[in-house]
Amino acid sequence: MKQKRQKDFKSGRAYRRKTAALSFFGLLVLISLLELIPLEKEFSEKENRPLAARPKLTLENVADGSFMEQYEEFRSDQFLGRNLWVSVKNRVDLIIGKRESNGVFKGKDGYLLEAVAAADQAKLEENLNAMGEFKARYEKIPVYLALAPNAANILADKLPRFAVTEDQSGMFRSIWQELGEGITWVDLSKTLSSHKKEEIYYRTDSHWTTLGAYYASQQLVEAMGLDGTKTPKWEKYAVTNIFTGDLSLRSGYQTGYQESIYIYAAENEKEMPKIVVDYGEGKISTLYDRMKLKERDAYELFLGGSHEMVNIRTTADTTDRLLLVKDSYANCLIPFLVPYFREIIAVDPEYYEGNLNDIMKEKKISSVLFLYNGNTFVQDQKISGVLQDE
Predict the structure, then answer these.
(1) Residue in 351, 373, 274 with CA at minimum distance from that of residue 306
(2) What are the strands, taking DSSP E only, across the chain?
(3) Pairwise CA distance, residues 370 & 346, whole Å
(4) How far is it, in rounded angstroms, from Cα 219 to Cα 213?
(5) Model confidence over 310-354: pLDDT tens digits?
(6) Is the pLDDT of residue 33 over 90?
């Protein structure tokens, strides 16, 4: 009887081992078969970003090791049920006390805060040198640099306990010290810090609000010596109350939170110049694309999103023309600059493939403004390229 029990036990153990081995083998086969199924998506609506594509296998990328790096990025972006697993991971992280996901902190009072980016020192130095050389070619034309601090800098008190991020204020001081003498530094940090208790940053998006942009525009008007008598009395209007921004999409936090987007208009329409806006695909008479309010990224209401170049002609009583080199932070600030310029040429180097010297020659530019948020500027790969002397 005892021998029979031992025999049954060994037989059962062998069966379990065999079953486990077959299950593991079956899982490997299933994973291999899934690899052959083209499930890839080009864009993540949930995270509002492009997803890595399957890399092509070549002798070159195998030899230099780049294939495995690209494949690892592809695999982390493309797998079955990805959105579900990301959502589950975020919930588990919150339960165990983690308050960071994909470079986004879940802060206090409903704020999501993008981590301050570390500077690409080599590229930053290259960009600053190119800006200095650009200024030297146009000695008589004033050039300004204004960097908008990110929310994690100004609203550091909203960061979760023990959150660690880069010292953006220190980076800004270094950039200021390295600027050529001819470029005027416009410090937006003090202005925004003085209004930090107001709604100057979105809670779910990486951009400043229109109110934050308004305060920055006031400082720019003063720093650039613009005619303050042209400033109209502004009135704000909510154009949506159901906005959920890119930080929520990227991190998976605050997915049910909705907030407002405001636009500012002159109380007296006669105080505002008429405008014609040329995106290169036709001309319109507004700086807003209300159709974007129905899409995933409603912040693209401003200027209709990102474009390589936007030409804004106005009926302002002046001959001044501004070249604005920018990222998307500038999009909601541009309306506040309209009263002071006959023409504003806004260029986004991320998409622009030309050379700014061509614009300087073709247009009678009277001033140049570089306007970025800190995270974008310290990691930018394109500024030096558009500033090169032909």
Answers:
(1) 351
(2) 43-44, 49-50, 100-101, 104-106, 112-114, 143-148, 183-187, 234-243, 259-266, 275-278, 283-284, 309-314, 321-326, 343-347, 367-373
(3) 10
(4) 10
(5) 999 999 999 999 999 999 999 999 999 999 999 999 999 999 999
(6) no
- Is the model's pTM score more than 0.85? no
User: Is the per-residue pLDDT at 82 higher than 70?
Assistant: no
Dihedral sign, Cα of residue 301, residue 195, residue 99, residue 103: positive
127-137 pLDDT tens trace: 999 999 999 99
Residue 90 predicted with pLDDT over 60: no
Between strands 321-326 and 343-347, the pairing is parallel
Distance between first and last Cα of the chain: 95
Long-range pairs, 353-359, Cβ under 8 A, ≥24: 353/308, 354/308, 354/309, 354/386, 355/386, 355/387, 355/388, 355/390, 356/134, 356/323, 356/325, 356/386, 356/387, 357/137, 357/387, 357/388, 357/389, 357/390, 359/323
> What are the DSSP E strand ranges found in 79-204?
100-101, 104-106, 112-114, 143-148, 183-187
